[in-house]
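Appendix C: a fully annotated inverse folding record. The material below is reproduced so that readers can follow the format used throughout the book. The structure is listed first as tokens, followed by the designed sequence.
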């Protein structure tokens, strides 16, 4: 495990370390993708960020017709996990949301509650998250 000089940030590429870190984290910032499912499994409040070049952004806006990037938001058809995508992914927006989650326990608990429901529904219905996404598209 490595450290980023001057910051209290740990970087790891070891799978078991990664799982422990996700489980023990108070908050995560993640690129949209399967990592959001892993963080949901551990009920770790998350902020989703995603940025691409302008051409890719334009292509995605033309062909992708979902409102959200994270599976939790897609399934619930509302923003449970804050998302900062494309031009909304700014330092100011992310820092503001970090403060919001840290300072407002109710926001944190709401995210965890929806993560619990999502996990329960996946287990009870024995659903594959990929199938669920396709169904909601």
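Designed amino acids, in order:
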């Amino acid at each position: 495990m490595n450290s980023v000089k001057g910051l209290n940030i740990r970087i790891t590429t070891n799978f078991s370390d990664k799982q422990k870190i996700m489980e023990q984290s108070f908050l995560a910032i993640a690129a949209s993708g399967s990592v959001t499912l892993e963080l949901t499994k551990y009920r770790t409040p998350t902020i989703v960020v995603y940025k691409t070049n302008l051409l890719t952004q334009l292509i995605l806006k033309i062909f992708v017709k979902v409102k959200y990037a994270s599976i939790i938001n897609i399934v619930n058809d509302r923003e449970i996990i804050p998302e900062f995508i494309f031009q909304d992914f700014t330092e100011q927006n992310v820092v503001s949301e970090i403060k919001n989650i840290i300072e407002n326990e109710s926001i944190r608990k709401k995210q965890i509650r929806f993560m619990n429901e999502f996990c329960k529904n996946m287990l009870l219905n024995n659903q594959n998250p990929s199938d669920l996404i396709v169904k909601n598209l």
